[in-house]
C-alpha cells in the first residue's frame, strides 16, 4: 500500500478474485472479516467485498495480515488471506510479501465427543510449516469450544460440541515462525481449520399424546381425511426427519410416510338405524433414521347425522416462539378451531419460511430459518404471529 493511504482508501476487493474459471457459475453472496492484525483499522463492505481503511493508518513500514471469508451462492465459500505492507514513503516500490503455503483442512467430529479429545495432533505438519513455531487461534473460537497448544499445535475440545447448536466451526490459526531465514515481521502464516460436526442420534421420537380420537358423521368415502399424527424428535439433520407407517399392514387406512397424514382406505357406509355406530382404529409408528421409534393409537368413530357448523378460530391471534436453528419440517405450533370436523386450513398471505398443514392446522417451517440470518452460526428466537 502507498504511504499516503488514508481513511476510506480501498485496500482490496474480494469480488476481483477468484476468476470465473476457479469458482464458475457462482455469485458473491456475502463477505466478512475473520481476522485482521489491527482489526479496528479495516472494515469490509458486504456483499461487494471491498476492504477499506476505517481510519488513517499509522505511518511506517507496517505489515498487516487479514483473513476474509467470502460466501457464494450454491453453498460455496472461500477464505482469502491478504498480506499488506505499507511503503515507507510515496514512490517506494511495492514488493511481493513472502507468505506460507496456505491449506484449508477439514476435521470431522461427532457431537458430544469427550472434552479433551484431540482433533489435530500437529497443525504445523499438516499444513506444511516446519521448524520452530507458535500457534494462536485468532478467530472462530468466540464460545471457547476449542483450544490449541501454543507449542505443539495440538487442537483439542475444551467443551462439548453440539450438532443442534452449530454444525460447522471455522478456526483461523496464526502460526508465528520462530526459526526461519525470513524475518518474522515479513511473514504471514495462517491456517484455516474447518471442524464439521456429525449428527448423533441422541433423542427418540415421542408422540405428544397417547391416542388421537376423531368422530365423523355419516357415510365416509375412501380417501376421506382422518387426522394428522406428528411425533417430536429433538435431533436435527437426518436423525430428526421421521417416517410414519402403520404398525400392522391394513387396507382400512392410508398413512403418509413423510407428514403423518391419515386417510380412510375403504369406504364406511352407515345404515338408517339411529343407534348405528362404527368404530375403527389403527396404530401408527414414527421412526427415525437410527431405528428409534414411538407409536400412537388413532380411534375413529363414525356416527349417523351431521353436527358440522361454521368453523371459528379459538383465538383472534396465535403467537408461537421458535429457535432460529429450526429446519424444514419443524412444527412451530397449531392453530385451533371450533364448530367443524372437516375444515381445512390455508395461508392467506404466502410466507417464504412458514406454511400451515391443510388438515391439522399445524404451523410448519418450510425453509431453514438459519437462512434468515447473515451469520449462519448464530442462534435466534423468532416470534411468529398468525391472525385469522
Radius of gyration: 30 Å
Q: What is the SS-derived class?
A: mainly beta
Residue share in helices? under 10%
CATH C-level name of the largest domain? Mainly Beta
Helix and strand pattern? EEEEEEEEHEEEEEEEEEEEEEEEEEEE
Describe the structure.
The chain is mainly beta. The chain folds into four domains: 1-97, Cadherins (Immunoglobulin-like, Sandwich), CATH 2.60.40.60; 99-200, Cadherins (Immunoglobulin-like), CATH 2.60.40.60; 201-307, Cadherins (Immunoglobulin-like); 308-388, Sandwich (Immunoglobulin-like). Helices cover 1% and strands 40% of the residues. The chain has one helix spanning 123-127, and strands at 10-13, 28-36, 42-45, 50-53, 63-72, 76-85, 104-110, 118-120, 133-139, 146-148, 155-157, 168-177, 190-198, 211-217, 225-228, 243-246, 253-255, 261-264, 277-287, 293-303, 312-313, 317-323, 331-334, 337-338, 354-356, 362-365, 381-387. A four-stranded mixed beta sheet has the order 7-13-12-9. A four-stranded mixed beta sheet has the order 14-20-19-16, with no helix packed on it. A hairpin with a 6-residue loop joins strand 10 and strand 11. Residues 94-101, 182-186 and 374-385 have low confidence and may be disordered.
